[in-house]
Amino acid sequence: QVQLVESGGGLVQAGGSLRLSCVVSGYIISINAMGWYRQGPGKQRDLVANITSSGSTNYADSVKGRFTISRDNAKNTVYLQMNSLKPEDTSVYYCCADLAGAPYPYWGQGTQVTVSS
Predict the structure, then answer these.
(1) Are 98 and 33 a contacting pair, CB within 8 Å?
(2) pLDDT on residue 41
(3) Left if phi > 0, otherwise alpha if psi is -120 to 50, otherwise beta: which for 84?
(4) What pLDDT was estimated at residue 40?
(5) How distant is the alpha carbon of residue 100 from its chain centre?
(6) If phi over 0 gives left and psi between -120 and 50 gives alpha, with beta otherwise, what is residue 94?
(7) Number of other residues whose CB lies within 10 A of the CB of residue 78
(8) Whole-number pLDDT of residue 18
(9) Long-range contacts for 29-32 (Cβ within 8 Å, ≥24 apart)?
(10) For the segment 60-104, what is each residue's pLDDT rounded down to a tens digit?
(11) Phi, psi (5° rounding) for residue 67?
(12) Residue 110: beta bridge partners?
């Protein structure tokens, strides 16, 4: 039974920083890739950043230079360091994991990030 649990969200002023964490538990052979997505009210869920088993990263243009994704393979954990936060970053952030041998990705419950002006 695979489970993803996000943490680290909260309320921060514009220009501040937060670090999100996502821990994957359950039966895991290996993790092909992990990523962070966000979904604001009335909007679709969009990619923020992802990272593959080889260490390759990908970022949305809106967060390049401000956000950094990283992973700790030993802990089955992915992080999203968010700096220079803007009000438009306000959203629910979701963790996603692509596991070896799984036909579909797994998702966490989401964590709220609110940036005030």
Answers:
(1) yes
(2) 82
(3) left
(4) 86
(5) 19
(6) beta
(7) 28
(8) 98
(9) 29/99, 29/100, 29/101, 30/99, 30/100, 31/71, 31/73, 31/76, 31/97, 31/98, 31/99, 31/100, 32/98, 32/99, 32/100
(10) 999 999 999 999 989 999 999 999 999 999 999 999 999 999 999
(11) -105, 150
(12) none
pLDDT tens digits, one per residue of 11-44: 999 999 999 999 999 999 999 999 999 998 888 9
**CA separation for the pair 67, 23 (Å, rounded):** 19
Tokens, residue 100? 């070896």
Answer whether 33's CB lies under 8 Å from 51's CB: yes
Amino acid, single-letter form, for residue 62: S
Q: Three-state DSSP class for 53? A: coil
Residue that has been written with the tokens 């390049």 in this structure: 64
Tell me which DSSP letter residue 18 carries.
Answer: E
Residues constituting the chain:
117
Q: What is the pLDDT of residue 87?
A: 97
pLDDT class of 1 with cuts at 50, 70, 90:
confident
